[in-house]
Specification:
Number of helices: 0
Order of helices and strands: EEEEEEEEEEEEEEEEEEEEEEEEEEEE
CATH architecture of the largest domain: Sandwich
Radius of gyration: 41 Å
CATH class of the largest domain: Mainly Beta
Strand content: 35-45%
Number of strands: 28
Distance between the termini: 107 Å
Helix content: under 10%
CATH topology of the largest domain: Immunoglobulin-like
Largest sheet: 5 strands, mixed
Structural class: mainly beta
Length: 345
């Protein structure tokens, strides 16, 4: 059939393609005969495809440009060229975080995670948004920089989006909680040598303090010829983190005193000395339990304290609401009955 004609209506292409995805361009025309197709990128002589559809796989910024399709009537050789269409390729963010991959932090601290470095390759017109996921994020999670205060090790994931073209990155946070443990209290006779040993990881640094004196990098800690009751403190430093503990040291002195009122010597106050006490008492809930102490001194006042596992200190004992405790100001503390809330030391 002679004299027939055909028309190219348009080339269909995506509005914006994300870097790394495929772009598909299709030519639409009005005609009923056999045709051949040649796809070109403007400025490139060789055809990219001879199909009615052009597929560009895993596009990059180099794929940006103008494209057109030539449609050839196989019978007559007539050529029609489409209008050019521009392919816009949007860059995916390159994730850059600080810290880069992982970080060791101390338990109880708060640190910053920063993804602003991801904008180093940002182009004009790009709009970046952020989204972080992970435990204990203490600032808004939709910012480039966030603060976190985790109590356990874990992973944080940031997603950076550029107008629908996104990328993700990860940071692993290793939470280190150092522990140094001393006995809560020690009893020792006057004149003896006090020795305390701290069980700590190899490479740790220890700083001891007793009676205002500081002793560094020794373990065990020895204090010879001890005379006075005191509190010994130790601080451990390891991997940039710190832990502290203390020990109450009670010194038992001899019971003889020289002088008297008749020779003009006034005997000073006799320091309290614990002679005997219950080390542990086991009892069933709802039973009656007692704690007893035998002490000597000029004027004795009894203050019962309970160990707080959170502060790691002994604090004045306050009976739980609803319990019945007798003898708070005496040498005999009586629970009637004993409850689970009163379990401890």
């Amino acid at each position: 059939m002679e004299g027939h004609d055909f028309f190219i209506e348009k080339v269909v292409r995506p509005e914006i393609v994300c870097e790394g995805t495929d772009a598909v361009l299709t030519v639409e025309y009005d005609g009923t005969f056999a045709y051949r197709y040649e796809w070109y990128k403007y400025g490139v002589n060789n055809p990219l495809s001879t199909n009615d559809t052009l597929t560009l796989s895993s596009v990059t910024t180099a794929s940006r440009g103008k494209y057109y399709c030539s449609v050839i009537d196989i019978r007559t050789g007539q050529v029609k060229r489409s209008d050019t269409v521009e392919l816009k390729v949007k860059k995916r963010p390159t994730i850059v975080t600080n810290p880069k991959d992982s970080l060791l932090m101390c338990w109880g601290d708060t640190i910053a995670l920063n993804a602003t470095g991801s904008e180093a390759d940002k182009e004009s017109g790009d709009t970046y948004s952020y989204s972080w996921t992970g435990a204990s994020i203490v600032t808004p999670s939709n910012q480039a920089v966030i603060s976190v205060g985790p109590r356990n090790s874990g992973k944080y994931v940031v997603t950076v989006d550029n107008d629908g073209c996104s990328a993700t990155g990860e940071v692993w946070i290793e939470v280190y909680r150092p522990v140094v443990d001393l006995p809560d209290y020690v009893y020792i006779s006057e004149g003896n040598t006090l020795e305390l040993n701290a069980d700590v990881p190899a490479g740790s640094r220890l700083v001891w303090e007793a009676e205002g004196n500081v002793f560094e990098d020794i373990n065990p800690f020895r204090y010879p010829n001890i005379r006075n009751s005191m509190e010994v403190k130790v601080k451990m430093l390891n991997e940039g983190c710190e832990a502290e503990d203390n020990c109450k040291v009670y010194v038992k002195r001899g019971r003889g005193y020289k002088g008297g009122m008749q020779d003009g010597y006034v005997m000073g106050c006799i320091e309290p000395t614990i002679l005997l006490q219950d080390r542990s008492v086991a009892s069933c809930e709802s039973d009656t339990a007692e704690l007893n102490i035998v002490a000597e001194g000029s004027t004795l006042r009894y203050i019962w304290q309970k160990y707080n596992t959170t502060t790691k200190m002994f604090e004045d004992f306050v009976p739980p609401a609803g319990s019945s405790v007798e003898g708070l100001g005496s040498h005999n503390l009586k629970f009637t009955p004993l409850t689970l809330d009163e379990n401890g030391k």
